[in-house]
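Structure first, sequence second, as always.
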């Protein structure tokens, strides 16, 4: 099955897999919006 990853912009200089890792609510919303768009596109293709 095809797979993809969504990367969300991080604060703190891009630290990841660390307790100091963080992101903003606005950036998380952009990720949710992008994922929703992809799911809508896929659902239209399968209809």
């Amino acid at each position: 099955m095809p797979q993809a990853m969504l990367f969300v912009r991080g604060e703190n200089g891009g630290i990841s897999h660390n307790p100091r890792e963080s992101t903003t609510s606005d950036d998380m919303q952009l990720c949710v919006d992008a994922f929703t768009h992809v799911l809508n596109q896929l659902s239209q293709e399968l209809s």
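Margin note: The chain is about 45% helix and 0% strand.
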